[in-house]
Design goal:
7-stranded mixed β-sheet; about 5% helix
């Protein structure tokens, strides 16, 4: 295999197009949501799972970050049992939010009889790592 060094070609980009593109760029990275899900002692236990149709919605734009990885929770259609008084730690990793985002929602869009995971009006921090406890 041989390698050939080339010079950087000169490219002309329309200033209007360049301006439009610069407002649509996203900051590379990920957003991580960690959850502690508690089941009451005086219950019959429960089942949980996450749907791939779970998103982060930037409340300042029309940007939507997609779920790219889930850890320690099953993905639809499988269920995960949690006994009464039990708990489950799990994490969800999403594609990055735009640099301009300061407030966002986490919404699991599903038709589950048990309801959907949802956290509204999350104030963005500088680490893009968030912790939540659910019951």
């Amino acid at each position: 295999m041989s390698v050939i060094e080339i010079t950087k070609p000169k490219i002309q980009i329309d200033p209007d197009l360049l301006s439009k593109l610069s407002t649509q760029t996203e900051e590379l990275g990920q957003v991580i949501l960690h959850f502690l899900f508690n089941v009451p002692v005086f219950s019959e236990g429960t089942k949980i799972r996450i749907w791939p149709s779970s998103y982060l919605y930037d409340l300042n734009s029309d940007h939507v970050s997609e779920l790219v990885h889930h850890e320690n929770i099953t993905l639809y259609p499988k269920w995960q049992d949690i006994e009464a008084g039990g708990q489950r730690f799990f994490s969800l990793i999403f594609s990055g939010l735009p640099k301009s985002c300061t407030l966002f929602d986490f919404v699991e869009e599903c038709d589950s009889q048990y309801g959907a995971f949802e956290v509204r009006n999350i104030q963005r921090n500088n680490t893009d790592v968030y912790y939540f406890m659910m019951r």
